[in-house]
Amino acid sequence: MISSPVYNFAAGPGIMPREVLQQAREELLDWRQSGMSVMEMPFTGEAFQAIMQQAQRDLRELLGVPAGYRILFLQGGASAQFSLLPMNLLPPGATADYVDTGHWSRKAIAEGSRYARINVAASGATHDYRRIPAQAAWRPNPGAGYCHITSNETADGLAYHWLPDTGRVPLVADMTSDFLSRPIAVERFGVIYAGAQKNIGPAGLTIVIIRDDLIRPARPETPSAFSYRVQAESGGRFNTPLTYAVYIAGLVFRWLKRQGGLGAIAERNRRKSDRLYAAIDGSDLYACHQRAADRSAMNACFHLADASLTTEFLQQARQQGLLNLHGHPAVGGLRASLYNAMPDAGVDALIAFMRAFAARHA
Q1: Which residues carry this modification: N6-(pyridoxal phosphate)lysine (predicted)?
Q2: Which domains are present in the chain?
Q3: Is 37 assigned a ligand-binding role in the annotation?
Q4: Are 95 and 145 in contact (CB under 8 A)?
């Protein structure tokens, strides 16, 4: 039997703000006395168009997206963008730089290499993916069409806490697992993309923020629905968007504004992760191998000194209402995802359990 309250530490889909879920429940059958659920609305109708436009305005305000950038609500998750980036940004035979910092950047490299010549400008493999490679060690190609980074490695527990300077080469970032967790200088990027299932909303929705000069004709073999240019020129109406996911994302954006915006959210996230990492570092049972300066505030990855206790840890944590603390299958160990909606009480409950578990196994 699972104790209450329950705290969901899943890496994705992740915890949602309770207020958002409650509002969605209240509006599920009848959105603002329209007689329809958002799921039933025609996507070209006034009601849904108002929902989507408001979501875009709120997102632009939250991030400070400057003029000269488009916000696209697309489908397929961030993994689809691994292919769509070179198909939309590069002509055949062109080169792109990628920085390998862990599991998801390797996925992006593998898929991107099907459509372009990939130069791995730097790799964290030399340090067993325990740190972000310093930019001084990068070996970029000055003729690259773009430079790709993964701003937060969900499986490896690493994050950039600085912005690379790529000069005239457009910087492209997969921000799936730290999008909206902190302010970012959008003007430093050519493209930002993020799957929704961490800090935005339901899985499947993908947000792409792209600078206008990079909206070009896609390669001829690119499906029209996955052409950035087609989607931008149609205002997201080329095909049916993920209407309900866009609606939920809009509720999350307004929730973030009520929390004080991304500056306030970033400070809260820093406090939560600092407390958890202090508990890990202060124990002989737990170990986080990532360099402290590069640790993720969203995904704290750690291991037990005695790995044979991992299953017992997970079982007892679940009984205490602390769910989904297993590490990524490719990495193992344990992982606590501290997305925006995770309350301080959830982190406190996890730390208390960890201390009690360590005391029982001292």
Answers
A1: 198
A2: 21-258 (3.40.640.10), 260-360 (3.90.1150.10)
A3: no
A4: yes
pLDDT value at 39 more than 90:
yes
**pLDDT digit string (tens) for 246-261?**
999 999 999 999 999 9
Nearest to 79 by CA among 192, 204, 256: 204
pTM of the full predicted structure?
0.97
Q: Which residues contact 30 (CB under 8 A, 6 or more apart)?
A: 36, 37
Check the annotation: does 176 bind a ligand. no
DSSP state of 339: -
Number of Cβ within 10 Å of residue 9's Cβ equals 24
Question: CB 277: neighbour CB atoms within 10 A?
Answer: 20
Tokens 């390998």 found at:
100
**Distance (Å, whole) CA 79 – CA 82:** 5
Contact of 41 with 225, CB cutoff 8 Å: no
Inter-residue contact 71 to 59 (CB < 8 Å): yes
**According to the annotation, is 79 in a ligand binding site?**
yes
In the chain, which residue ranges form alpha helices assigned H by DSSP? 18-27, 46-63, 77-89, 103-112, 228-233, 243-258, 262-281, 310-319, 344-360
Q: To 10 degrees, what angle do helices 310-319 and 344-360 make?
A: 130
Taken in order 130, 136, 137, 141, the sign of the CA dihedral is: positive
Interatomic CA distance for residues 130 and 282, integer angstroms: 19
Q: Per-residue confidence at 145, pLDDT binned at 50, 70, 90? A: very high
Give catalytic residues, as residue numbers: 104, 174, 198
- Which percentage of the chain shows pLDDT scores above 70? 100
Using one digit for the tens of pLDDT, what is the confidence trace for 65-81?
999 999 999 999 999 99
Total residues belonging to the chain: 362
